[in-house]
């Protein structure tokens, strides 16, 4: 089977001033269709909600066409699909015991495929409630080395279903263009006998979050203990008495011993998590990049990350598990579900994809991206200890098999039903 590689490119649209109102009117009707579908399909708690697009279309499509005169038929279908997909996610949350409510739509976001949009390398023609509007792309003068040059202008990539968004602060429209290509079909199939656990390390919050949704340790507590210890040592030094000097010598590196024990317990839980999910590899981000992220003198965090990884590697080796690192670029900005990579996707501890609306804890999302990066590296030819090339990564519920070479278009071996938007697992030392 051939799997597509997908990249999402954000490009500003040069919309004629006299046609901006047509796009706003189109969005209003598109969101109306999504909200009407949600009202019709949401039946909790009395009945089962409708999550099937075909069933929803059979029940409400004709009414929506009558109620939104001028809206392209395909946009009505896309609005129905958006609502039923989101309700499906809500049903999954309810099945996990989470609290959720009917989806509501009030932002600017229109889904276009090739029936409602005609894509070119330098412009796009979009269906609106008042005919089509042609919008040129605002491209960089030198696109080489940019996502525009690498994907949007690359003839080996073709356009797929994309979305149009509006920035009200800047009064600008953007196309989130989904670019697809097929990988080399001549590449040999790889054995499916290795599995990765991804780990995202943090300066604050939890020390580590895994791709299986486990939250480990308390970085805030560790930092607090360090600061209190350093203040006490400084106070003793300033006192200058013999008693203070003796106390200073007696406490010595008490914090160092305590923190090493704390990280030992965290590393033990990480390895146990990998074993529990049958993982052959544990993936961390490359420590070489951490100094750039925390370059404000917080050398302690650098030490803590390195100590944790070293302890994990030592314990993992005893269980035949390999610890590897991956390049950390965009792990916190890329959606682990659809591959959309935008800085605006992340808001503190919350990740909310602007393209597919996937919403989850940001560190959990990053951990899944880290796991996937190593899975891809191993699938491309590196061998696992068992002799087969790597092709799976562990999630909160089940695993995913890597089928692409760049972003998430993978196959669930067992369906992932997760809503990890806050720490629910045990946290060592918290």
From TrEMBL:
Keywords: DNA-binding. Pfam families: Cas12f1-like_TNB (PF07282). Residues 305-370 form the Cas12f1-like TNB domain. The keyword DNA-binding applies. Signal peptide: none annotated. Residues 409-430 are annotated as: Disordered. The keyword DNA-binding applies. InterPro entries: Cas12f1-like_TNB, RNA-guided_DNA_endo/Transpos. GO terms for molecular function: DNA binding. It comes from the Archaea. This is Transposase, IS605 OrfB family, central region. It comes from Halorientalis regularis.
